[in-house]
Amino acid sequence: MTPESRADDIDVRPIAESEFADWLRAVNTGFLRAAPLTDEEVEGRRERFVEGRNLGAFDRGRCVATFRSFDQELTAVGGASVPADAISGVTVTATHRRRGLLSRMMARDLTAAERGDVVATLIAAEYPIYGRYGFGPATWMAEWTVDVPRAGLDARWAGPAEGGRIDLVEGEDVRKLGPELHERLRRRQPGAIDRDDMWWKLNTGALGWDTSWKPPFYAVYRSASGEVEGMAVYEVDDNWGDAKQPLNTATVRWLIGVTPAAERALWEYVCSVDWVVKVKSGWRAPDDLLPHFLPDPRAARITSLADWLWVRILDVERALEARTYEGTGTLVLEVAGVDGLTGGRYRLEASPEGASCTPTTESAELEVGLGELGALWLGDESAVRLAALGRVREERAGAARKADALLRTSRRPWCPDMF
Ligand SMILES: CC(=O)SCCNC(=O)CCNC(=O)[C@H](O)C(C)(C)COP(=O)(O)OP(=O)(O)OC[C@H]1O[C@@H](n2cnc3c(N)ncnc32)[C@H](O)[C@@H]1OP(=O)(O)O
Question: pTM higher than 0.90 for the full model?
Fold first, then answer.
């Protein structure tokens, strides 16, 4: 029997494109997907290979850990796009866990600030993994299950009000109409991220090699003037009760609307498909309007609530200057860095007209960890709450309240996508 390799013998490095198939196999192993990979899938997924940013760890030539990052646009409060280092495909094969491989891959990637990225982003498989690297949960998601017969909707509902209309379309129509609609939403929705061409192909069944694909229904909402303002993509199961009653569940894969009228029309539509008695909403912001579109909001029950997009601030000054502020004020923050990266003392001067954030030697009012700053940045978390938990410290009484008045937003951020 050959002895186990020492951690230092394991090589962590960007993979060559010729190693992509082995790397993908390791991703599947790490995510506990045992089905073999086809050559077509390897070729198809190659589109997302980025030279220098698909990292692997190799033990005697075998890929035992994976990590990938790519350029992403993330919408800050107020609608500006900030360049983000999106991290995904993080796996360490079970035989090599807890030997520091994730930490080594992360350390390599978090030099991303040198590429000019303002933040790094990821969606965490498990809550305890990424806080140690300076990430904080910046958006949350809620999924509702609607008990349709109790929702109080008018059973005679026959389409949107005010001249709007809903049409069922095909995947190819979504590939044509979806990107522009999504960009309209993305450019004003804090927490939203861009969708690449591959996203649209993967999510409309345009890739023959994707054996997990199940065709859904696609509904498009147009306003009275004929403009595409919303889309809902949903699947329906096949479930009949003992007495021959239809008891189907519609599961929304994604639903976006750029006006409240579009959102309302699409939710009313999905909740009024004959045979459907239950609607699962998919990943929404925790303050989504859905329950309140129903005459009886209690018919919509939150069945899943969890952290979603995690953010690590890579450049404090640019991050705080990229977003907008509804109030006016100054705040001196002591940001505790991680591994000597990013920390420092900063003076934020903010008003609805703009903000500046600069290093300072003034006394700090509030001490925050990098992860806490990530959680506060998109406006979701409360500094007062974090102070009560002992996770931020007031150096001046009232500083947490002042931070909330500046940083918190009237609606919660939302990242509709998984990556
Ligand atoms: C963005 C994404 O892709 S999310 C997907 C993440 N991947 C998965 O969940 C797939 C299954 N899990 C794995 O592949 C691995 O367990 C990983 C990637 C989560 C961790 O990889 P490892 O190489 O074992 O982590 P590593 O040894 O570098 O651990 C670093 C530290 O994090 C801790 N840690 C690692 N994973 C976890 C976890 N799941 N829960 C709690 N703590 C963890 C370790 O204990 C260690 O702590 P220490 O510094 O106090 O000793």
Answer: yes
Residues 70-96: tens digit of each pLDDT: 999 999 999 999 999 999 999 999 999
In the DSSP assignment, the letter for residue 378 is T
- Domain 7-117: give its CATH superfamily: Gcn5-related N-acetyltransferase (GNAT) (3.40.630.30)
How far is residue 54's CA from residue 36's CA, in Å, rounded to a whole number? 21
d(CA 419, CA 416): 10
CATH 3.30.1050.10 residue ranges of the chain are: 315-407
Contact 183, 134 (CB under 8 A): no
Handedness of CA 287, 290, 294, 298 (dihedral sign): negative
Q: From the CA of 116, how far away is ligand 1's center (Å)?
A: 27
Asked if residues 73 and 194 have their Cβ atoms less than 8 Å apart, the reply is: yes
ipTM: 0.98
Instruction: Enumerate residues lining ligand 1, CB below 6 A.
Output: 30-31, 87-92, 97-103, 122-126, 128-129, 132
| Strand, helix or coil for residue 299 | helix
Nearest atom in ligand 1 to 97's CA: 24
Q: 212 phi and psi, to 5 degrees?
A: -85, -5
Sequence ranges of the chain with CATH classification 3.40.630.30? 7-117, 142-305
Class of domain 315-407: alpha beta
Q: How far is the CA of 99 from the centre of ligand 1 (A)?
A: 9
List pLDDT tens digits, range 248-281. 999 999 999 999 999 999 999 999 999 999 999 9
CATH architecture of 142-305: 3-Layer(aba) Sandwich (3.40)
